[in-house]
Amino acid sequence: MIRLASVTKRYATGSRPALSDVTLEIGVGEFVFLVGPSGSGKSTLLRLLLREERATAGLVEVAGRDVARIPDRRVPQLRRTVGCVFQDFRLLPDRTVAGNVAFALDVVGRPRHVVRTVVPEVLELVGLAGKEKRFPDELSGGEQQRVAIARAFVGRPRVLLADEPTGNLDPATGSEIMELLEDVNQAGTTVLMATHNAGLVDAMRRRVLELDAGTLVRDERRGGYDA
Ligand code: ADP
Ligand code: ADP
């Protein structure tokens, strides 16, 4: 589902590459953690998969497509294949919960009657039934992250990227969000989650990829946060 072959990413301003010669493959339906200290290249890797950045060298493939060769006008299609959630939720503050989720469908031109049925279904799925008309600032952090996951998942992406999704949440709420990401994974979506949350990684015992200063230093089948 995801393949990087000898990928190097050098930013115009950086002295050393943000990623150096990274090679990895993630299969359909896997749940993978991406760990490593701050500045090790985790976000850069995720941005390459969304074509928010381009690799300086090497090949980046998502769902069998070389993302470097996707024409700019087709990038929105890639972003439909790859949903993403972030530490800071990134909800639209002037739209309701339902509006935030509906927006993701509106922008890809789904008809209103589809939006009307699908939005309540996905909100039910993430445990937010009854909160459709709330605004983001009326929700707890955990609820806001549920909205973000609903929005990312509503188009049934094949891949979900999560950049430190529990970073702003207390441990109990973080665990709930993890359960939700596991549900998303069970539904067949490949999940790649960048995190510093050692407790969650250790509890889950999933595949762990570790970056250090842009180099892939570990790929363990049932890994913990530390080697
Ligand atoms: P992480 O997500 O693991 O904290 P990042 O991918 O954000 O790591 O950063 C990897 C390296 O690339 C760091 O040295 C960081 O300073 C650098 N970097 C990240 N984004 C940019 C950018 N837009 N321009 C220049 N350097 C960047
Ligand atoms: P506004 O755009 O005025 O902030 P909303 O955010 O409530 O209004 O709604 C924006 C979008 O969300 C519209 O496309 C609407 O069809 C959709 N929507 C609103 N409420 C629901 C709901 N309960 N179920 C499904 N879709 C909804």
Automatic annotation (TrEMBL):
Membrane-protein topology: Peripheral membrane protein
Broad class of where this protein is predominantly found: membrane
Locations listed in the record: Cell membrane
GO biological process: cell division
Pfam families for this protein: ABC_tran
Signal peptide: none
Residues annotated as transmembrane: none
NCBIfam families: FtsE (TIGR02673)
Official protein name in the record: Cell division ATP-binding protein FtsE
Naturally occurring in which organism (per UniProt): Parafrankia soli
